[in-house]
Amino acid sequence: MIKANVVVEFPKWKKKVYNPEKYLRKKLDKLKKILKLKNKNLEFSILLTNNAKMKKLNNQFRKKNKITDVLSFPLKYITKNNIYIGDIAVSFEIINKRSRISNFNYEFDKMWIHGYLHLAGYDHKKNKDYKKMNKKELLILNYLNK
Question: In whole angstroms, what is the distance from residue 8 CA to residue 21 CA?
Fold first, then answer.
């Protein structure tokens, strides 16, 4: 099982994704089927916020004083029944802008999946790692949006 604790900090999110908790729960139910999790209960939190908050978080944690689309904060905390893998933050305005030539839910899926893969240990610092992560992202994105 994969569980997301959803925090909607920026109200405009609910105008585009009516019930973000339910939306992510459905996506995560599908995701667990292709990840083949072996009786692991994974949990993470996702903050649905805006550019101002993303800039603040990016500056605070990465020393980059600029907005960004998604931030991931990996953390492995194991309890008796769960493995907490970290936190993700996603910017509404960036996704909304990208969705003008695409679809809001699709762009949102791209971002939280990207963040989730960072929590799972993927990165894109080297070109070979980028290719590996991008391949996994596309596989998951295509599966979830069938």
Answer: 9
Report CA-CA distances (Å) from 136 to 11, 26, 58: 31, 19, 25
Say which DSSP state 122 is in. -
Per CATH, domain 2-144 is 3.40.50.620: no
Prediction pTM value: 0.92
For residue 18, what are the CA distances in angstroms to 12, 36, 137?
A: 10, 29, 24
Span 88-132, pLDDT tens digits: 999 999 999 999 998 999 999 999 999 999 998 998 888 898 899
State pLDDT tens for residues 63-72: 999 999 999 9
Query: Where are the chain's structural domains?
Result: 2-144
